[in-house]
UniProtKB/TrEMBL annotation:
SUPFAM superfamilies, per the entry: Nudix
Single GO term (MF): hydrolase activity
Pfam family of the protein (one): NUDIX
Name by which UniProt lists this protein: NUDIX hydrolase
Highest taxon listed in the record's lineage: Bacteria
Gene3D superfamilies noted in UniProt: Nucleoside Triphosphate Pyrophosphohydrolase
PROSITE patterns in UniProt: NUDIX (PS51462), NUDIX_BOX (PS00893)
Residues in Nudix hydrolase domain copies: 6-135
Keywords: Hydrolase
C-alpha cells in the first residue's frame, strides 16, 4: 500500500446509474461543510480502511447501494486543507436506482446529468471539478 493510500481523510464516489449521476442534497445545518449543497456519496475514513473501502462503505450507508469494487473504473487523489481526498467513479445500470434508499444523512437524493452537476451553483465545487476531470478522461470517453 502506498503512502497516499495510508494517509487520507476521506473518499467520494461519482456513481453513475445509467447515464445519470447519483447526488445527495446535504443537510442544511451550519455545523457541516457545504450545507444544503449537492454532494456525492462518500465521507470520512473509519479506522484503517482503504480509500476504496471508505467510498464503498459510505455509499452503502448513504444510499443503500452495495457497489461491486470491480465496477470502480477511475480513481484519483488530491489535497484539500483537511487532508488527502480520494475520488472514484463507477457505472451501474439505471435499474439500480430502484434500490436507492437515503440513509441518515442528507435531505434527498436524485439523478442528475453530470454536466448539470458541474454547472450547478449548489454543487460542492471541488467535487464538481474532479467530476469534470473524469468526464474528460479516457476511462469515461470509452463508456460514452
Amino acid at each position: 500500500m502506498t503512502q497516499d493510500q495510508t494517509e487520507f481523510s476521506g473518499a467520494k464516489l461519482a456513481l453513475f446509474l445509467g447515464q445519470s449521476l447519483l447526488v445527495i442534497r446535504r443537510d442544511d445545518r451550519a455545523d457541516i461543510p457545504w450545507p444544503d449543497h449537492w454532494d456525492l456519496p462518500g465521507g470520512g475514513r473509519d479506522g484503517n480502511e482503504t480509500p476504496l473501502d471508505c467510498a464503498l462503505r459510505e455509499t452503502r450507508e448513504e444510499v443503500g447501494l452495495v457497489v461491486p469494487a470491480d465496477q470502480v473504473i477511475w480513481r484519483v487523489n488530491y489535497l484539500r486543507p483537511h487532508g488527502r481526498i480520494w475520488f472514484f467513479a463507477a457505472h451501474l445500470p439505471a435499474t439500480w436506482s430502484a434500490q436507492v434508499v437515503l440513509g441518515d444523512e442528507g435531505q434527498e437524493w436524485q439523478l442528475m446529468e453530470p454536466c448539470d452537476y458541474i454547472r450547478h451553483p449548489k454543487a460542492v465545487p471541488h467535487f464538481a471539478e474532479q467530476l469534470d476531470i473524469y468526464l474528460g478522461s479516457p476511462e469515461y470517453q470509452r463508456r460514452a
